[in-house]
Design goal:
eight-stranded antiparallel sheet; Rossmann fold; Dna Ligase, domain 1; 20 strands; alpha+beta; 24% strand; globular; 3 domains; D-amino Acid Aminotransferase, Chain A, domain 1; 33% helix; five-stranded parallel sheet
Length: 445
């Protein structure tokens, strides 16, 4: 087992990894920027190390500095969390070359899935269904050719990244040039690569993902999550099990997925879109997901601990994989520092930051009162996960915990989340990726 794990990350996920390390008897070393020096993860870890500066490129994305810090701290493993360096194949390769364990999949697997067009092509060849998509787009004419094949609308996406960043929907042909010009620099700034590809745009699909646990020779699917409630293509509310009557269709594809990625060697997530009765591969995230907690609560498993143990060489048959089927319902809401109406980030000092404990509610918070929310990082404040013996109970517990969570000093999206959770469409499971826009349109009439 690892002895000392370096965590070059911040907020909610850094704190979560610290907790997993403590459970496993491993020392945790948290890297922090100057702006994060007083946050809970830094206070709770065994050792904190400063990364001078405040911008991500100088701190959490500075792979050379992170690796040198790991060597100086004599860390024998690095857990990147999610975001930042988590899906950088070059960083993972450098870590491996330095003789340090990268807590995640091998650099080969990250590389294989990091270019979305190649991942789609690879999975299609292995028999996994995919929705209509293009290859890499060299210029605007390539986009027009693709439109000629599938029609409008389409969506332009960064080929080297995900998470909803840098996506542009093209509804009219005269939008192609401007959307292409807008998308390229965002892809470059977000993923250091301006390559784009296109997909046929599905206006109201469901976003469904499979939790993968694998050790390089054995691969298992540990539950399925519904992640359709999104704003600007980024997730807001997730849950498991998936509502509705998709159980058979989801179960049927699981053997195909495990066969296609049978030599994968960590935890990961296969994301799909479900539209018009068809489930199609979207991408594979070769890392821990933000929404891993709903699977942990429903399946009674510690995915972060599993990820650490697998990287240390332990096999699945020696580990606690929890329950194969969900034992309860779990619903997660992401509390952001952003206003509920315009959904724009909010910065300031957290004069009050007071989560309230409730039975059947897990709260993962990345801040405490007195901390500052700045425009330099993702504005996620906390994740609220309600559980219950029924979906309705899990929804209610999440909504109540949100309402009781006191935050002063910045605006939050709490009201928006409560409105979604209380909407008839959500409660009845009539969910799709355009639901938030529909609810917003109705409320503004």
């Amino acid at each position: 087992m690892h002895q000392r794990v370096l965590i070059p990350n911040r907020g909610v996920i850094a704190r979560r990894i610290v907790r997993a390390c403590r459970k496993l008897g491993i020392q945790s070393v948290v890297c922090h920027s100057d702006l994060d020096a007083q946050t809970p993860a830094v206070e709770e870890c065994d050792q904190a190390v400063r990364l001078p500066g405040y911008q991500a490129k100088d701190t959490y994305l500075n792979s050379h500095l992170v690796l040198e810090t790991a060597k100086k701290c004599r860390a024998d493993a690095i857990h990147p969390g999610y975001g930042f360096l988590a899906e950088s194949s070059s960083f993972a390769e450098d870590v491996e070359t330095a003789g340090i364990s990268f807590i995640g999949p091998s650099s080969d697997w990250i590389k294989r899935m990091s270019v979305k067009t190649e991942a789609r092509s690879s999975m299609s060849k292995l028999g996994i269904p995919v929705h209509e998509g293009s290859g890499l787009l060299q210029n605007e004419d390539c986009i027009r050719d693709f439109v000629g094949q599938v029609g409008l609308p389409i969506v332009l996406k960064p080929a080297a990244g995900g998470g909803g960043i840098g996506m542009f929907v093209v509804h009219e042909e005269d939008e192609i040039a401007i959307k292409f010009q807008q998308a390229q620099p965002l892809a470059k700034s977000g993923f250091a690569d301006d390559s784009l590809y296109a997909e046929k745009y599905l206006s109201k699909p469901r976003h469904i993902e499979f939790q993968v646990v694998a050790d390089g020779s054995d691969c298992s699917i540990l539950g399925v999550r519904e992640c359709s409630i999104q704003r600007r293509h980024q997730k807001l509310i997730e849950e498991t099990p998936v509502p509705g009557d998709l159980d058979k269709q989801l179960a049927d594809i699981e053997p195909q997925l495990t066969s296609a990625i049978r030599d994968y060697d960590s935890i990961g997530t296969v994301e799909c879109l479900y539209d018009d009765g068809k489930l199609g591969f979207l991408e594979m995230n070769t890392r821990l997901q933000v929404e891993h907690g709903v699977t942990e609560e429903a399946h009674n498993v510690d995915l972060v601990a599993l990820q650490v143990q697998i990287s240390a060489g332990e096999s699945l048959d020696s580990l606690d994989l929890g329950s194969e089927k969900p034992q309860q319902y779990a619903v997660e809401a992401r509390l952001y520092a952003e206003d509920s109406e315009r959904m724009l980030p909010s910065s300031g000092k957290l004069n009050v930051f007071r989560p309230v404990p409730f039975e059947g509610v897990r709260i993962e918070a990345g801040y405490r009162a007195g901390n500052y929310i700045t425009p330099y990082y993702d504005p996620l404040l906390a994740k609220i996960i309600g559980t219950g013996s029924s979906r309705e109970q899990a929804i209610a517990r999440t909504a109540i915990a949100l309402k009781a969570f006191e935050v002063e000093g910045v605006s939050t999206n709490s009201e928006l989340l409560q409105n979604i959770l209380g909407s008839e469409a959500f409660i009845l499971g009539r969910i799709h990726t355009g639901l938030l826009e529909e609810l917003h349109t109705r409320s503004s009439r």
